[in-house]
Amino acid sequence: MTDGQTPDVIIRVKDLRKVYHVGDVDVHALRGANLDVRRGEFLAVIGPSGSGKSTLFHILGGLAPPTSGQVIIDGTDLSHMSDTERTEMRQRKVGFVFQKYNLLPTLSARDNIEMARALAGYPPQPSNFDEILSMLNIKQRLNHKPRALSGGEQQRVAIARALANEPAILLADEPTGNLDTENSNAVLEILRYLNQKTGQTIMMITHNPEAAAFADRTVAIRDGVIHEG
Question: Of 98, 164, 199, 220, which has fewest CB within 10 angstroms of its CB?
Answer without folding.
Answer: 199
